Amino acid sequence: MSNLDLFERAGAAADAVVAAIPERPRIAVVLGSGLGALADRLADAVAIPYGQIPYFPRPSVAGHGGHLIAGRLAGAGVLILQGRVHYYEGHDLDAVTFPVRVLQCLGVRTLILTAATVGIRPDLRPGALVCLADHLNLIGLNPLRGPNDDRLGTRFPDMTEVYSARL
Question: Which pTM does this prediction carry?
Answer without folding.
Answer: 0.89
